[in-house]
Write a structure and sequence with these properties.
By secondary structure, the chain is mainly beta. The protein contains one helix and 30 strands. Strand 26 and strand 27 form a beta hairpin.
Length: 383
């Protein structure tokens, strides 16, 4: 009897740790695009439980919006892009929100050269264009910005081989580092997502470069890098492809021990993407391999933005796979235990990233879900 009791105690934590969530649609964007966001990007949350995001289309001028939804799902538009011929148009990627409630982001088009902008919008909807890009595709992809205590912004410019930039509050733009400056692009090529600022260093990934010939004889399989705010770049790890990660596709997140985590669209033993880890001593490992499976609970092709909670659990989205083969929301511990939280059941994708509130609930957006096909906000309530 004593032996059975000990076994019960040993297995109790395993059963107790299986966290479950309940999926619900919080908001369905209205049918009339001029009154609504259309095609929303990934959301962010504030301490009061409000949800914010950008939409690529919709709004009064059909050039996109900055939208807000309360925790009960009431939708409002903070700003309609395209109000003038030189305004930002078609915002893209993730918002950055400062302690005063101001929002920062990038647009794919608009501005004085129609090649995109960096913008600031107050909580009351007053917009300022901080920078006008002058080269096509300079704000492409799913960009995100970092901001320091002095108000300087940092981001990636994806024109050419890509670069890291700094933008002061007064609008002074400086290129800190240009990629593919070394032979065979050993220093990386094509930065994706946005940088993470830690002290005086910026950390990020490139989708190509690094010198490996496993993915391309020239461009490589991608890198993890750091760039100081004075412009000195160091490659922390170059991916090798094959069973290693390949083509990392979004910003890094850091745990409480100083380890970095990210996702790759390709690579791993199954070839369908990975979650990778870079230790605080720059040792890389694949934390989880995604594998193709037409009817199974695991997803594959993880996409872009991971988030991490206060207990160092990671959360993300797989574009395909799951029991309905329409994508999943997953969690993964820093020791590599992966759990499927939700299997999508519908043709609307689960979006590019998640947001977390202080109660541990998750929020995401669908690009074209809902009866109007303008998009939805969904919630995964922690049980």
């Amino acid at each position: 009897m004593k032996t059975k009791f000990v076994l019960y105690l040993l297995f109790l934590p395993l059963f107790a740790s299986a966290q479950t969530y309940t999926y619900s649609t919080l908001t369905k964007f209205p049918a009339t695009s001029k009154d609504s966001a259309v095609n929303p990007w990934e959301p962010i949350t504030d301490s009061a439980g409000n949800i914010y995001g950008l939409s690529f289309y919709g709004g009064k001028y059909n050039q996109g919006t900055l939208w807000k939804a309360t925790k009960s799902g009431t939708l409002s538009i903070i700003y309609n892009f395209g109000v003038t011929s030189t305004d930002a148009e078609r915002p893209i990627g993730t918002l950055l929100r400062d302690s005063s409630g101001n929002f920062y982001g990038e647009s794919e088009s608009g501005g004085t050269s129609n090649f995109g902008t960096v913008f600031k919008i107050t909580s009351t909807g007053k917009e300022t264009i901080l920078w006008n890009f002058t080269v096509e595709l300079s704000a492409a992809g799913l960009p995100s910005l970092a901001r320091d205590s002095a108000g300087n912004l940092y981001g990636f410019n994806t024109s050419g081989a890509g670069s890291v930039f700094k933008l002061t509050p007064k609008g002074v733009y400086t290129t800190l580092y240009t990629f593919c400056s070394l032979t065979n692009c050993d220093d990386g090529m094509a930065p994706v997502g946005g940088p993470v600022l830690k002290g005086s260093k910026l950390y990020g990934v490139t989708a190509e470069g690094g010198g490996s010939t496993a993915c391309s004889p020239v461009n490589g399989c991608g890198t993890i890098f750091e760039v100081t705010t004075s412009g000195v770049e160091t490659v922390l790890y170059a991916f090798n492809g094959g069973i290693d990660a390949s083509a990392p596709n979004g910003p890094l997140v850091e745990d409480s021990a100083g380890n970095w985590y990210g996702s790759s669209y390709y690579g791993g033993t199954g070839g369908y993407g990975t979650i990778f880890k870079l230790s605080s001593t720059n040792v890389e490992s694949v934390l989880h391999d995604f594998s193709f499976c037409s009817v199974c609970t695991d997803g594959f092709y993880p996409i872009t933005y991971l988030i991490i909670d206060s207990s160092d659990n990671l959360y993300g989205i797989a574009a395909e796979g799951g029991t309905n083969n329409e994508g999943t929301v997953f969690s993964i511990t820093t020791t590599g235990v992966e759990t499927t939280i939700y299997n999508q059941n519908g043709l609307a994708g689960l979006g590019w990233g998640l947001a977390l509130d202080k109660s541990g609930n998750l929020y995401g957006t669908t690009w074209n879900g809902g009866p109007n096909h303008n998009g939805t906000i969904y919630k995964l309530t922690k049980n």
